[in-house]
Amino acid sequence: MNTADLIARYDGRVPRYTSYPTAPHFHADLGTATYEQWLSSIPAAVDLSLYLHVPFCDRLCLYCGCNTSVVRRDGPRRAYAARLIAELEMVAARIGRRARVAHIHWGGGTPTTLPADCLLEIMGTIRRLFSVNADAEIAIEIDPTAVPADRLEALPGMGITRASLGVQDFDPAVQTAIARIQTFEATEHCARALRALQIPSLNLDLIYGLPHQTADSVTRTARQALALGADRVAVFGYAHVPWMKRHQKLIDEDALPNPVQRFDQRAAIDQVLVDEGGYLAVGLDHYARPGDAMARAADSQALHRSFQGYTTDPSPVLIGIGASAIGSLPQGYVQNITAVPAYLAAIDQGQLAIARGIALTEDDRVRRDVIEHIMCDLEVDLDAIAKAHGVDSAPLLAAACAIDRFQTDGLVQREGGRIVVQAAGRPFLRSVAAVFDAYLNQANGPARHAQAV
Ligand SMILES: C[S@@+](CC[C@H](N)C(=O)[O-])C[C@H]1O[C@@H](n2cnc3c(N)ncnc32)[C@H](O)[C@@H]1O
Ligand code: SF4
Hints:
This protein has 16 helices and 19 strands. It is α/β, with parallel strands linked by helices. The chain folds into 2 domains: 1-15 and 362-453, Arc Repressor Mutant, subunit A, CATH 1.10.10.920; 22-359, Alpha-Beta Horseshoe (pyruvate-formate lyase- activating enzyme). A 9-stranded mixed sheet has the order 9-10-8-7-6-5-4-1-13, with helices on both faces. Strands 14-15-16 form a 3-stranded antiparallel sheet, with helices on one face. A 3-stranded antiparallel sheet has the order 17-19-18. Helix 8 links the parallel strand 7 (201-208) and strand 8. It is globular. The structure holds S-adenosylmethionine and iron/sulfur cluster. The site of S-adenosylmethionine (SAM) has 18 residues, from strand 4, strand 6 and strand 7.
């Protein structure tokens, strides 16, 4: 079957599976009281992960799908930082002890929009309230064009171990179309500064499927990215969801590549990173240098998937701090209020700011496990998962029959309950995982997703 036919068959609109059930299935019946119970029952043996969300940027890129807005004044930034500290204190009090923390991720938006003293004070608060492991991974997302020197200089004091730089594309025509002007030189300058500060690990984000991109143009961008020598590169397909992100309506849809062109762009970047750069492909959309912790985790089937995408973090407890932040606990998921004023007001009233969430059923846990294995390991043994959960494998095996058309098309191999995604199937990983999503085809399903490929 040719590429166009494969895409027509499998490029459905399916989730990215950064959680299961996915966020559109969270509901407002689950609120603060339940979250407080969940926090108070976190097992003492568990190392926690923290995610801090900063929903501010200096600029608004037209493609952006993140929860953020342009805030350039220090007043609101400081006010927000104070509420992050208050929320951390409330969470720590509910946990009831100085829990160990092994991973911290600062995301956004652009976390480095917060003043340097606020960033340091928040990290100080975390170290006071929690016992941060000496080898903890502490990552931060950075917009290379909007990071003042004092923010960069604060990173070592914060204990940052990995910086993630948004690049997307270096082609000036593409940058103009997405309102994100960022020269290679500015990005290289930022990467050099991070190295000089001895930040151990560097990640870059690229996007394909943007207006005016071609396989040739993304090849040039990928080669420039190689020159930056990152340890990891994330390669996202542009998620065009103008019904959710209204500023994306300003993107000229006539200039967007079609699904076959998107597929070719993805393949072109893959070829540069793997064949020329020596990176290993990890999961759906990541590349890591051999020897990097993510490459090792992928090799040993120890990779995980969380709201930040692929991670080496095995913790069953991720605490989300900040507006719209999502937490993942053994009992289920919770999400904070998205609107910043309402988030601030809730925290000021001394309340955790939960807007919605979902408690996991046994069936959710089993399917979540199956989906995570497919997304991370590109293979799964349904009988072994059913056994590990103490459930009958029959419903999973019944669902797996839908895999057979992928097998006919050479994308997966299935023998009974054992499913192995082939190299040709990697771009269609989300669609393979979706076979096990019990929520996807519900008649009243709330979600509309971006293209799978
Ligand atoms: C929170 S943002 C990055 C941090 C920083 N604000 C920056 O832009 O450099 C994380 C990444 O999400 C990706 N991203 C944002 N919107 C996207 C979209 N609509 N589709 C695909 N990827 C997207 C971009 O690659 C971006 O670098
Ligand atoms: S891509 Fe980064 S800088 Fe641009 S609007 Fe989104 S979060 Fe802000």
